[in-house]
Structures are given as structure tokens and as C-alpha cells.
Write a structure and sequence with these properties.
alpha+beta; binds flavin-adenine dinucleotide; Alpha-Beta Plaits; 4 domains
Length: 468
């Protein structure tokens, strides 16, 4: 990046918070998306507030520099990889947590991680009930920007469901507030759907392509203290999927319900079972791992009993191992993703949502591409609210073998198309969905028009939102 532009940036954030050092650029060239090639930006800036961000966007517009907004850098689908010689605006200095206890809400700066927020809320007996497994490194705003999901989603839905309002710096450097807080006299965040259409929603899942979220206002709830952890085995996918639907229909308070194939569990438990304290066993064809949570013990006992009955009524059996769901729920990071990092594996992922009775289609499709291309992979899923299941296929490859990696890229592309045709929808509209979503042409054109209207110079993370 030209030194004169770097100078302009420094005048906004101060010399200390702009860098063109080789080692810094190298760090910001990549993210947790291990299967994406690094791209070296031209400069990295670390503003402290919305006003500085507004001034930085003016400079970027003036010089037509592509901007990548970066928070924790934990995204897995290449969303935060910069553009060559572009500008990375890192938001981790935007801290601050403001609790509105009477309104059951909290407002946090864009740099606040789930870990920090949870530590704060736990002192008040509260929580934000959904948090991704990357909770210690990922920011709340970053997860809103991708509309993520994770433990807690099985009851509360995707992250977007928790959002009451956003403060946003638009690409033209104007600052807006959405939700009830748009009223400067409002006592705090208490309603998202005020002031006409859901402008908040426009920015949820926007992947830094429409503006910069500088603070998020989220719902908080009384912290659950009582949990039941169990695993349930089934001999067919129909039984397992029926069980998941019965749990919903009977209002069992399952905060995290995951669905695994037998061979996948066998494989991973061989690596990690000892550490979890899980005895070696032959895992059933399908296993549901579930954490039920309640604020009252009597309610928990009743739900746990009901879940066991429903399992048996749908033809399953209660496995009775609690360590696995307990680690999933409490450990967050200590699950499969970690196993891959620990063992140095590389993978491409292809997050998507299926309906409750369609998750087996994802397993079938990944099995087909694994057979065709000859690689190791798997998919598992978790319930994400009212009627969806988040599936996350992992396609493993050897990072030092370019042919192996090329094969995975091809298989990944093919899988995106075939999964879409099973009725699946993207979870995070990452760039690889481009051209893979037959029948959405008009919708994508509309999205593209919106992007052009809001960001006429196309500086904000161009190409990231399904190719837009
Ligand atoms: C071990 C591991 C486990 C994971 N588990 C989960 C999981 O359970 N659920 C889940 O949803 N994800 C999961 N992820 C993926 C990742 O944590 C999420 O995508 C997360 O939301 C990214 O947040 P971040 O702060 O790291 O954002 P970044 O990676 O920095 O950015 C992500 C995207 O959002 C944009 N962005 C970030 N902040 C803002 C902002 N303030 N305003 C506008 N745009 C912004 C960026 O431009 C980029 O497009 C996991 C990742 C890892 C490494």
C-alpha cells in the first residue's frame, strides 16, 4: 500500500495502531480457515471506536481500497481472508459491556468475545444462551456477522434470533442504530422489530460486506443451572430423526442435540475416548447426544424422564454415557474440531442446514463424493431451533500434497451443488456457494442490487457474500 495512504490511516488511528510490517501482514493474511490460501493485505489498522472506523472508510472509498473487517479471525470458510494489498480493519479494541437487567438485554462492543461476555454475565446469574464452539476467540459481533449457531441453538435457534439491535457504520461512513435503541430516549435494547422493516436482519449474516457492526445488543436469559447429559442409540436414521421431532413436539428443553453416525464416533473416540473417559464400545448406526437444561431441577427431571421414554417409543435405546454430551456442552472447544487441530489435519468445511427429516441426505451425499474422489471425511449435525439441523461436512486432505488438495476443492464444489438439490440451504453464505444455488438467481440479483446501493464503490469485502 502506498506510504501516503498509510500515512492517512495513521492520522486516524495513530501510528501505533497501523501496521505494514511483514510479520503482521503475514498474520492477518490467514484465519482459522486452514484450507484457504493466505492473501497478504496492504495494511492492518486497529481502530478504537465507530468514529475512527467512519474516517477509515472515507479513506478506503477515496482510494477504492477493498476492506476486510476482522474480529476474532476464527471463521472457517475463508470469509475474513483479505484482498491483495487491501485494508484489514481489526475491531478487537472496541470493548465495553453494558447490562440492562430489567430489559433482559446486554450491549457489547464489537471486540467482545463470548468468553468475556460469559464471564461477565455469570456474575449476574445470566447468560447469552447460544455460543459457538470457538467461544473463547470469537466475538459476539463476528458471530452475528456470520449468523452462526452452536451449543444452545437446539433450543434458542441461530445467533440472529438473539439480536435486538445493532450499531452500524455504513460504507458511506454514516453511523446508524437499529432496533428500539434507534430512539435516543429508549432506556436500552428491548425490541428489534421497531421502525418498519427489519434493518437489523439485513446485517445479520452479511459477512462484513454491507457495513461495520460496531456494537450489538443481545437478549440475555436467566442462567440454567440444572443439566441432564445422555446419549441415545438408533438402528435407522428414520428412528433417530423421529426422536428429534418428538423431542420438539413434547417441549423437551434440549439445549444441545447432536446427531452422529456410528463409524464417525468410532473413529473419533478411538483418538479421544480415553481423554473423555468414554469406554470403548460399538456405536449404533445413529447416535443422538443431548444436553437438556432447565432453571429448575423438577422440570429437568421430568424432561429427562420424558426424553428416555420418547427414545424407547421411537425404537431406540438409552446409551447412558454422559461424558460425551457433557464435554460437548461444557468444553466447547474440546470436540471434533480440536481433534483435527491436535492431529494436524486439514479440512474444508461446507456448513449447511437441512430439515429435521433430511439430515440423512447430507450423509448420503458426502459418502457418494468420498467414494467418487477417494478421501476421508464425515458429516455430523446439531438441531438449530424450530425445524432445522445444522450439518457440517468435513473433507480432509493432506496439506503438503497439492493433488490431494485440488481433489478436495473439486469434491467440495460438487458437494455444494448436490447438497443444494437435496433442499439444503447455506449456513453462512460463503463465496463457494456462488453458482451452486440453482433457482436463486433473482434473489441473488436483488442482494447484489442492495450491495451496490449501500456500497457503490464495492469496497466492503467484495465477492464474499455468495460471490457478490
Ligand atoms: C474451533 C472452532 C469452532 C467453531 N465453532 C463454531 C460454531 O459452533 N458455530 C459457529 O457459528 N461458528 C463456529 N466456528 C466459526 C467461527 O468461530 C465463526 O464464524 C465466528 O462467528 C467468527 O467470529 P470472529 O469474531 O472470529 O469473526 P471473523 O472470523 O473475524 O469474521 C467473520 C466474518 O464476519 C465479518 N465480520 C466480523 N466482525 C464483523 C463486524 N463487527 N461487522 C461486520 N462484519 C464483521 C468478517 O468480515 C468475516 O466476513 C468455529 C471456528 C473454530 C476455529
Amino acid at each position: 500500500m502506498k506510504p501516503s495512504i498509510v500515512n492517512e490511516l495513521a492520522q486516524v488511528v495513530g501510528e501505533k495502531f497501523v501496521s505494514t510490517r511483514e510479520d503482521v501482514l503475514h498474520t492477518y493474511a490467514s484465519s482459522a480457515s486452514m484450507a484457504k490460501n493466505p492473501v497478504r493485505p496492504g495494511a492492518v489498522v486497529r481502530p478504537s471506536d465507530a468514529d475512527e472506523i467512519a474516517a477509515l472508510l472515507k479513506i478506503a472509498n477515496k482510494h477504492q481500497i477493498p476492506v476486510t473487517i476482522r474480529s476474532g479471525g476464527t471463521s472457517l470458510q475463508g470469509e475474513v481472508i483479505p484482498k491483495p494489498d487491501g485494508l484489514v480493519i481489526e475491531l478487537m479494541r472496541l470493548n465495553g459491556i453494558q447490562l440492562f437487567e430489567d430489559l433482559r438485554s446486554v450491549r457489547v462492543g464489537a471486540g467482545v468475545t463470548y468468553g468475556e461476555l460469559d464471564k461477565f454475565l455469570s456474575k449476574h446469574g445470566l447468560w447469552l444462551p447460544i455460543s459457538p464452539e470457538s467461544a473463547l476467540g470469537c466475538t459476539v459481533a463476528g458471530n452475528v456477522a456470520v449468523n452462526g449457531a452452536g451449543p444452545g441453538s437446539s433450543l434458542f435457534g441461530c445467533t440472529g434470533e438473539m439480536v435486538l439491535g445493532l450499531e452500524i457504520v455504513l460504507p458511506n461512513s454514516e453511523k446508524i442504530q437499529t432496533g428500539s435503541e434507534a430512539n435516543p430516549y429508549a432506556p436500552g435494547p428491548f425490541l428489534r422489530y421497531a421502525f418498519g422493516p427489519d434493518i437489523t436482519g439485513l446485517f445479520i449474516g452479511s459477512l462484513g460486506s454491507l457495513g461495520v457492526i460496531t456494537s450489538v445488543s443481545m437478549k440475555v436469559f436467566k442462567r440454567m443451572e440444572f443439566f441432564d447429559y445422555n446419549m441415545y442409540g438408533f438402528d435407522s436414521y428414520q428412528q433417530a430423526e423421529k426422536f428429534l421431532m418428538e423431542l420438539k413436539d413434547n417441549d423437551v428443553n434440549a439445549v444441545f442435540t447432536s446427531l452422529y453416525e456410528g463409524p464417525v464416533l468410532e473413529f473419533f473416540m478411538e483418538m479421544m475416548g480415553d481423554e473423555y473417559g468414554i469406554p470403548p464400545m460399538e456405536w449404533p448406526y445413529r447416535t443422538v447426544s443431548m444436553t437438556i437444561g432447565r432453571v429448575r431441577e423438577d422440570m429437568l427431571k421430568s424432561d429427562a424422564k420424558l426424553a428416555r421414554n420418547l427414545c424407547e417409543q421411537t425404537g431406540g435405546r438409552v446409551i447412558g454415557i454422559e461424558q460425551f454430551p457433557k464435554n460437548e456442552w461444557e468444553g466447547r472447544f474440546w470436540t471434533f474440531v480440536r481433534a483435527c487441530y491436535v492431529h494436524g489435519w486439514h479440512w474444508r468445511t461446507l456448513y449447511h442446514h437441512q430439515t429435521p427429516t433430511n439430515s440423512h441426505r447430507s450423509v448420503e451425499e458426502i459418502t457418494k463424493v468420498m467414494d467418487k474422489y477417494g478421501f476421508l471425511g464425515h458429516t455430523a449435525g446439531f438441531v438449530t431451533g424450530h425445524a432445522s439441523t445444522n450439518m457440517y461436512p468435513h473433507l480432509y486432505f493432506d496439506p503438503v500434497d497439492p493433488e490431494d488438495e485440488a481433489k478436495i476443492v473439486e469434491a467440495h464444489d460438487e458437494l455444494a451443488s448436490t447438497l443444494f438439490k437435496t433442499g439444503a440451504v447455506p449456513f453462512k453464505l460463503a463465496p463457494f456457494w456462488k453458482g451452486r444455488m440453482e433457482g436463486t438467481e433473482k434473489y441473488m440479483e436483488f442482494l447484489s442490487q442492495l450491495k451496490r446501493a449501500i456500497d457503490p464503490n464495492n469496497i466492503m469485502n467484495p465477492g464474499v457474500l455468495g460471490g457478490i
